[in-house]
Write a structure and sequence with these properties.
This protein has about 325 residues and is an alpha+beta fold. The protein has 3 domains: about 1-50, no CATH class; about 65-185, no CATH class; about 200-315, no CATH class. The protein is built from 12 helices and 11 strands. It has helices spanning about 25-35, 50-60, 70-75, 120-130, 170-185, 200-210, 210-220, 235-245, 250-255, 265-290, 300-305, 305-315; strands spanning about 5, 10-15, 20, 45-50, 85-95, 115, 130, 135-140, 145, 150, 165. The chain is elongated and about 80 Å long.
Length: about 325
């Protein structure tokens, strides 16, 4: 039976599989443990072969990486793949294969968690450099439409232990298949996608006139009432409304921008119908919550009789 524990992955190993970290050569690692409040017996520090890359990644990044207490408290999120065969991605951080906690916020598994969908796992990989294997779990609150990672989701990167990703040949094959599948999906997806976390605050302001935070705040009022369709998601529908008001692009242009199905006339109609649907929901669920008797006088309403006012409030003949 294995009788010695690896200090990095906490797995029990035979002595032949371990390397001692007690000598002064590894004083940098001793200092690293002390700086993070770890108590240890220097003669009981060992590293298994599978954690060699992780050990020296710590050494390389020691001056710039801050290790959070959550990383120490939740070792199950730091399980390391001991398979040295296959593909190693040095610049991609492996975020663990544990199934007891949410991979995003580290909460314990509950009824509000699901297996993280492929699209959300690819979002972590492409936008944050984090590899999450199949079977990892996530709170539903982190997902948009149950599929993608929410654009406004905060992912703590700096406080994660930078363990390189080592993939077996099977895992590497699955990852490439997922990436190729994503490329195929992108070919038919919207050219401008407000479901994507890659859009910056400046992008939101340029296209809609609102910051991402303001956009999200307004969207919350109607998101449960606005349905997605085969032509656009509910979030993109909301964006179409504000893009029309901000840029005054034609509906044909907007239909093309969001890659709606059909010819130019059909795209025009679908974009126009989308704007009408969003306008009605805003009047019902947003405007009614912020405008009422006594809130604004008729004279003040006349002063604000602009394009936004006409569309949102329905004032067409105030003058």
């Amino acid at each position: 039976m294995p009788d010695i524990k690896c200090n990095l992955c906490n797995c029990w190993r035979n002595s032949s599989e371990l390397k001692s970290l007690c000598s002064s050569t590894y004083s940098w690692y001793h200092e690293y443990l002390l700086s993070n409040g770890r108590t240890f017996n220097v003669n009981e520090l060992f590293s298994c072969k599978g954690c060699t890359k992780a050990l020296y990644t710590i050494k390389k990044d020691l001056s710039i990486v801050s290790i959070s207490h959550s990383s120490e408290s939740f070792p199950e999120l730091m399980e390391v793949n001991d398979d040295n065969d296959g593909l190693t991605l040095d610049n991609i951080t492996f975020i663990g294969s544990g199934h007891k906690r949410c991979v995003v916020c580290s909460l314990l598994v509950s009824s509000k968690m699901v297996l993280m969908p492929k699209a959300a796992r690819l979002d972590l990989l492409l936008f944050y450099g984090l590899y999450a294997p199949r079977g990892i779990r996530s709170c539903t609150s982190h997902l948009l439409n149950g599929d993608r990672l929410r654009p406004d989701e905060h992912i703590d990167i700096e406080n994660r232990l930078p363990i390189p990703t080592s993939l077996s040949s099977t895992e590497a094959s699955e990852l490439f298949n997922d990436l190729f599948s994503l490329i195929d999906e992108l070919r038919s997806s919207s050219h401008l996608d407000f479901d994507s976390i890659s859009l910056t605050d400046e992008d939101y302001q340029a296209w809609t006139g609102w910051t991402k935070e303001q956009f999200n705040l307004m969207f919350q009022y109607i998101s449960s009432h606005l349905r997605s369709s085969s032509n656009r998601t509910s979030r993109n529908a909301f964006a179409i409304f504000w893009i029309k008001l901000k840029t005054n692009l034609s509906f044909r242009q907007i239909g093309s921008l969001f890659n709606m199905i059909g010819d130019s006339e059909l795209r025009r109609k679908r974009a126009s119908d989308t704007l009408d649907s969003v306008r009605e929901l805003l009047i019902l669920h947003f405007v009614s919550a912020h405008l009422g008797i006594g809130y604004i006088t008729i004279d003040e309403a006349k002063i604000h009789n602009a394009a936004y006012t006409k569309v949102c409030i329905g004032f067409h003949n105030l003058h």
